[in-house]
Design brief:
By secondary structure, the protein is of the alpha/beta class.
Length: about 160
């Protein structure tokens, strides 16, 4: 990864981290996501499963929907998703269906991650996609957000 790409990726992951922090303040699992096209954020989201009572209200799903609404097309072919946690199977499916070109994430999810940890759904050629995936950007910060959240929840 060249320095320009690294600084760009870090800038957008930091925005996703801020969204995750917002979600945590609302007692949502702290995951944040942004969709970027031509260096502009066109969709944002943080987990809202509890507040919306919707099992599909993951940060990625909300950001992808917002991005599609912004550009007026479900095809996000020239866009990159930045998310603080490796996407789950549902979100990986939405990534494939929206035709995102790249996924950059913070921390790996050994239990449900479908962009490399548990399975590489986004890179499976049987789905006809060519999605570039890169993980571990600000991994420690993203992991700490989740650990702190669940530590607090266990005390309650």
């Amino acid at each position: 990864m060249d320095l320009l790409s690294k600084s760009t990726h870090e800038r957008f992951i930091k925005q996703a981290i801020r969204l995750a922090e917002m979600g945590a303040r609302l007692e949502e699992i702290p995951v944040g996501a942004v969709v970027v096209k031509e260096n502009n954020v066109i969709g944002r989201g943080y987990n809202q499963r509890e507040s919306l009572k919707d099992p599909t209200a993951h940060a990625e799903m909300i950001a992808i929907t917002a991005a599609a609404n912004t550009i007026g097309d479900w095809r996000l072919t020239d866009c990159t998703l930045y998310v603080t946690k490796e996407p789950c199977p549902m979100c990986a499916g939405a990534i494939i269906n929206s035709r995102l070109k790249m996924v950059i994430f913070g921390t790996y999810d050994e239990e449900k991650g479908c962009c490399g940890s548990l399975y590489q759904l986004c890179g499976d050629p049987r789905f006809g996609n060519n999605i570039s995936v890169r993980g571990g950007i600000f991994e420690d910060r993203c992991k700490e957000l989740l650990k702190a959240f669940f530590k607090t929840k266990r005390k309650e």
